[in-house]
Each structure stands twice: as C-alpha cells, then as structure tokens.
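Q: A reviewer asked whether we had any structural model of the full assembly, not just the individual parts. We don't, so I'm hoping you can provide one. Inputs are below.
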Amino acid sequence: MNVQDEYRDQILTALEEAASHYKAILETTVDAIITIDNQGIVQTFNSAAEKIFSYRAEEVIGNNIKMLMPAPYRSEHDGYISRYLKTGVPKIIGIGRQVTGRRKDGTEFPMDLAVSEVPLKDKQVFTGIVRDITEHKRLEEQLVQSAKLAAVGKLVSGIAHEVNNPVSIIKMHIAGLMQDAESQKLPKDLMEVLRVIQRQNNKVSQIMAGLLAFSRQGSFSPEWTDVNQPMHAAARLVENTLQNQGIVYQAELADSLPKVFLDPVRIEQVLVNLFNNAIDTMSGGGVLTVSTALETDETHRDWVIIRVGDTGEGIDEEHIDQLFDPFFTTKEVGEGTGLGLSVSYGLIQEHGGRIEVSSQRDKGSEFQIYLPVTE
Ligand SMILES: Nc1ncnc2c1ncn2[C@@H]1O[C@H](COP(=O)(O)OP(=O)(O)OP(=O)(O)O)[C@@H](O)[C@H]1O
Ligand SMILES: [Mg+2]
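A: Here is a predicted structure for the entire assembly that you could use as a starting point for your response.
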C-alpha cells in the first residue's frame, strides 16, 4: 500500500465514523427530524418521526410532506416553499411555529415545527424538527382553566357576600310586613304581592348559597374507595328521574378495581352533575351508559376511568372549548347556571385527575374521568 492509498483509507474511515456518529445522533433524538427537497419531497425520516407519525420511514420517503398534514394545511404548504423560493421571505422557515400534524391513522395532534434551510452544494434541502406537544398543550389548558376557576371563585364569593346582606334585610322586613298585613286585614292582592316578593327574594338567596358553595368548595376528605361505590350512590339519586323520563340506565362496572384515594362525596357530586346534564339532553328518552375500568397509559401510570355516556343532542364543536368554563350554559335562564361542569372540573383536578369529553352532534356525548391509582 502506498502512502496515498493509506491516506485515502484513513480519510474514508474518518468519514464513515463521522457519518455513523451523526446517524446515531439523528436516530436517538426524541424530536422528529425530517428533511425535504425544494419540491416538498421527503428525503429522510428519523426514528422519532416514525414514532410520532406512526409511519415507517420507507412509507414516507419519496412522498410529499403534505401526507403528514391535515386538510387545511396541506394546500397551504406548497405555497410556503414556492413563495419562499420566489420571494426569499420566510413564513415558517427559520422561525418555527405551532401546527397540526396527522398520524397514519388519520388522528391529528398539535406539534411544534421548526424548519431550517440547508444550502447544499448542488441542491437545496429543508430540515424540519417536529415535537409532539399534546401533553404540553393539555397541561397548559389545565392551568388556564384552574386560573379561570380561581379568579371566578374569588369574584363570586365577593359578590355573594355583598348581595347576602340586603337579601337578608329584605327577608326580615317582608316577614314583618306580612305579619302586619295579616293582623290589619289588608287587601288580599297586597298579600299576594308580598308573597311574590318573598318567593323571589328566597330564590336570590338560594342562588347565592349555590354560588358560595361553588367558591368555597369545603374541605377535601379523601379515603381509599372503590369508585363503584360513589357510582352506585349517584345512580340511586337519579333513579326516579331516569324512570320518569324513559331513560335506560346501562352500567358496566369493573370488579376488583384498585381502591382510589378519593373523596366519595365529591365524586358522587361530579357524577350527579354529569347524570343531570345527560338527563337534560335526553328529554325524549335515551340511554345513559356508565362504566368503570382500569387502564395503563403509555407512561405506565395506572388510571381508574369512569365513563358517562348519553344518546342526547351532542355538543356543538364550537362549545367544546367553553364547556368547563364557569357560567357557560346553553340552557334557558333559570334552568342552568353553567356551574355543574366547572365545579366538576375543579373537584376532579383536586384528586389529581382529569375530565375529558367527546361528542358527536345528534348522536350523544361521553365524559371520561381519569383518577390516578396511587400506592
Ligand atoms: N351530556 C351533555 N350533552 C349535551 N350538552 C351538554 C352535556 N353536558 C353539558 N352540556 C352542555 O354544557 C353546558 C354546561 O354544562 P354545566 O353542567 O356546566 O351547566 P348547566 O347544566 O348548563 O347548568 P348547571 O349544571 O349549573 O345546572 C350545558 O348548558 C350544555 O350546553
Ligand atoms: Mg349541569
């Protein structure tokens, strides 16, 4: 071997080492790294990308990157690259933004996307780094929701205290007036007016009591409990109503569930709230389905899951985001205050759990409560 050959071999080995070094980095990173050419055709697709999008690399490489995007973004995407190539003004490139990705099974998820341009000698390549931010988004929403609840709770308790004073003064004076009216034999219609005032005043005081209960939420007293127990208790409370409204109750409760550290009274309250909403949406009859189950998530945490489903009207897409907001209601004045779900949300959060909803217009809705199983 002459010196030149030896030198060439050394360079080749060094190059191979460098290449496998970079490949190892690319394949072990938790972020998806995808490269595309200036036509949007995928050139490389690392292991994390396979995991996040649940496609194998060979299913994606050679295809347009659009296959990883849901409908409205697909058509925009060609625009991004060609506009950038034409104008040099980046919209995503070099900036990064939150977009929606699409997995092989069609499900969508929120992701952070950072695109950078790699000017190679003979061609132009774009690298996209993608991070699945589903969990991040959920935590963010939970934080916003509890901040909202806390702020409203404060406001509500302030107002309730202020309003309670005049309400009790009115109450006292009406009682006095009614006594006078009776002893002095005042006209009947005057008596009737006093009664109306008394009834309405009592209503105000009831609403205020409800609001105060919402803002105070009492003390939390958890004990090791089988979730089927508050489920039975809640079902008993609505039994008659269900029967009267022609609603069938179907329960599929898992036995030998691990006990959960929960406050049975509060879980019962949450379930009654959900049952009442279900009853309201099935005025013409229907089926109320409840189930309990033990499930393990992808991070190996165990959850006891309670599902409450109905065959009612379903929930409009545009209302889903507001559903757990205090005072969000679609019910007539006097029929709903919009507190049921926001209170339930707070109660479940107190247990370290979460509550979610899925719904289809005219088919029905299902609420899922996740309670953590702890040692
Ligand atoms: N199972 C359901 N089916 C359809 N819509 C629902 C269902 N559960 C809740 N909703 C919608 O969510 C809104 C808020 O529910 P929430 O229980 O917080 O308040 P509400 O029932 O209106 O009043 P409250 O519970 O204070 O009496 C309801 O007004 C309704 O529009
Ligand atoms: Mg309700």
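A: Points you may want to mention in the reply: The chain has three domains: 31-132, 137-216, 223-372. The two ends are 68 Å apart (CA to CA).
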